[in-house]
């Protein structure tokens, strides 16, 4: 069961309190390059990114935000470090969320100014703590532990709460999965705010995908996390695809079809790897959130494929097409993919 | 903390009771093709597969096992369905583990014969239940639930226990991650046997990798699982690589270096994606289990890279090389990878 949290709105997109878990990413263009950043925001939105974060390192980047917000098909989040003027400019430009740690932007007056402007525009703020940014005082007291990360977040949260600002999202990141899980578990017992989850500096595309999936699987399967970002050293569109795949894999939210398929083994009598890859390719843009099974094993295949919306299973050059557990037809192996795609289109026509 | 389980031995490789979590896979060659199967077993062992399972669908496959066992660099597991004679032949051939469900091979006499032969050779047996193979009686009673899967396993376990056979490994697989987690949690409260974990029919290479990582992350982070197999519709060597990456990502077991790297963002001022990919490629066969950080962000980079064995971080054409938190040198961006590789080799020479 998902942890119960408060809800905040990022433009028209809710986070927390049972809302669908959102997938986000961050542009890696120079924010001041409006054309390139707009193009990337559009590519991210097309891939299913619920809202997009952009770095705001200076005034020129903050100035670019008005145009980016105006043309973006999804809400935008401004990523601010240290400088409250950049936060104020971003709010004026109409961003829908800030990422800002109040303990890092100077005096209480500066924080008060930002909070007032955010409240007027109903803009939530994410506090983002990671194990590399914990203060030396907290490190000295708690060591390099999950508690140190949580206490660091609680310090920032206390600054906002004192100013009656509660539209807070919190992220707690560590490069270590175990510590990240422990930190979010501890935080969920202390405060009611929705959380942004991710494994920071997860790594290269292949290893980072695996590390993010393992870490987010650990968190999400415990009901932790209201919005997620997969961090990869790769095109951010890939982050969005992986994010959706993790949610699909866990049965939490689905975009398009999910494919299940047998591992090939010594019993496999058809070209399963080729068939599965062709099915995934031909139906990758299919709009319905259905489950499609591609099975090559007479031992486990039929049993598992029963529960899929559509399925194929085969052996020795012939195959069967299933739909909701019913055999539709028997076809030669060479026509199996065509037959499956035809049935998928039948399903689409009916709905 | 890992769940406490009994220990069994697969040849010289322990499973359970705190032993390192093993990575396994299964050949997808025709077992009767001895040359092809030997070649694949060797490739799997070279990739770090702790033991290899082979399908034994008929007597000819069982006959091939003697030669396969003799030449294999790692223990072998015979995968048997329905036929107790194939189990007996496999044991005679010297396999180190069986995968066999006693409720599916016929009379109690047949089970007794297999158990006796396994006991004589100290060979453990894995009971493998998946949601597609649960009996209709259990489905009628418990529905399509985790409990139905667990009760199915307990029926098979009871057959072995009645014959005083306890060298049991259990796997409980469902295509649904949530149900798989619930089933292993329930089983761990009922019996002390070590478990083989995996997400069955996980799917195509990309989606299956993500689904396996998310599901195994959920299980392993709860201390569940003593040996794992990643199922992919792909070359089984890829299953082994993904298995190791999952264990590395969770900090449970490491083979070679782990790379952490920043997502690129609007603040990145070096070609981080290119540098990270080059580092991963040049150090992929590096033998020490160290952590290498490739960071491009002046905000989070230095803090995170502190804890890595080796790290590089950069901006505006120049970079720093770190070792255990100490800056070693400042080099031009173009020499950053060479400098890192040189330091890795220094580390290797010292150990």
Please tell me about this protein's structure.
Two copies of one chain form a homodimer. The first copy, chain A, is 42% helix and 19% strand. With 351 residues, chain A is of the alpha/beta class. Chain A has two domains: 8-249, TIM Barrel (Alpha-Beta Barrel), CATH 3.20.20.20; 258-350, Sulfite Reductase Hemoprotein, domain 1, CATH 3.30.413.10. The first copy, chain A, has an eight-stranded parallel sheet with strand order 8-7-6-5-4-3-10-9. Chain A has a five-stranded mixed sheet with strand order 11-12-13-14-15. In chain A, strand 14 (318-323) and strand 15 (326-332) form a beta hairpin. In chain A, helix 2 (59-71) packs parallel to helix 3 (84-92) and helix 5 (136-142) crosses helix 6 (146-162). The radius of gyration of chain A is 23 Å and the shape is elongated. Chains A and B meet through helix 7, helix 8, helix 9, strand 11 and helix 10 of A and helix 7, helix 8, helix 9, strand 11 and helix 10 of B.
Brief rundown of the structure:
The structure is a homodimer of 351-residue chains. Chain A is α/β, with parallel strands linked by helices. Helices cover 42% and strands 19% of the residues of chain A.
From the alpha carbons, calculate the radius of gyration of chain A and give it in angstroms.
23 Å
Mean pLDDT of chain A: 91
Number of domains of chain A: 2
Biggest sheet character of chain A: 8 strands, parallel
User: CATH H-level name of the largest domain in chain A... which superfamily?
Assistant: Dihydropteroate synthase-like
Q: Quote the distance from N terminus to C terminus of chain A.
A: 30 Å
Number of helices of chain A: 12
Sketch the topology of chain A as an H/E string, one letter per element.
EEEHEHEHEHEHHEHEHEHEHEHEEEH
Oligomer: homodimer
